[in-house]
Design brief:
Elements (H helix, E strand, L loop, with lengths): L2 H24 L13 E6 L16 E4 L5 E3 L4 E9 L4 E7 L5 E7 L1 E2 L6 E2 L4 E4 L10 E7 L21 E3 L5 H11 L5
Antiparallel strand pairs: 1-2, 1-11, 2-10, 3-9, 4-5, 4-8, 5-6, 6-10, 7-9
Length: about 190
């Protein structure tokens, strides 16, 4: 390898590291675990997972094992951008659009509770965990993605970057607290 090629290679590595750092810090900084506060669940598969998180669309995704029908809540405030079903993928899913054109996707849901174009506060329900689509059991698939659907490196402010096999307790709003907050922020009729 010539000296010029080594410099090009070194520049490329530095550029890629800088891009990864920029992207990781561009995603929502106050993102919390996508289940109600106080509950603890296991990360069944982490970033670059051993089973299926091996494509640009899912390399930075997480799968959290949770019983069928567990409430799934918004990791950060955003607008419901897409709701759908993919039989060979996420099954029932919902996508929220956040600031700076970043998106969060919640997959394999048994039921979606959000409505298209509705604003969702952090900690508010978006659905219930399930096993729809390409799934081996009840869990929540979660990832931050860009506008093209590519998975982005990110972290939660309450549980950090979850590692496969570890348990994590959410510091998101408990459901009862989120319901009370939502009631207080609704305009009064009249």
């Amino acid at each position: 390898m010539s000296a010029f090629t080594r410099w090009e290679f070194a520049f490329l590595i530095l550029f890629l590291l800088w891009m990864q750092w920029e992207t990781a810090f561009a995603s929502p900084s106050n993102m919390k675990a996508p289940w109600p506060g106080g509950l603890t669940y296991r990360c069944n598969q982490g970033n670059n997972g051993s089973f299926s998180h091996d494509t640009p669309q899912s390399i930075y995704a997480w799968d959290f094992g949770m019983p069928l029908g567990t409430p799934v809540v918004a990791a950060d405030s955003g607008t419901v951008y897409q709701i759908g079903y993919k039989a060979n993928g996420y099954g029932n899913y919902i996508v929220l659009k956040h600031q700076n054109d970043f998106f969060s996707i919640y997959g394999h849901l048994s039921e979606v509770t959000g409505q298209l174009r509705a604003f969702i506060h952090q900690g508010s329900m978006v659905g219930f965990s399930g096993s729809t689509g390409n799934s081996t059991g009840p869990h929540l698939h979660f990832s931050m993605i860009d506008a093209k659907g590519f998975s982005l490196p990110s972290q939660f402010c309450d549980i950090g970057i979850p590692k496969e096999g570890n348990f994590y307790t959410s510091a998101n709003y408990p459901l009862s607290q989120r319901i009370q907050f939502h009631k207080k922020t609704q305009p009064k009729p009249g």
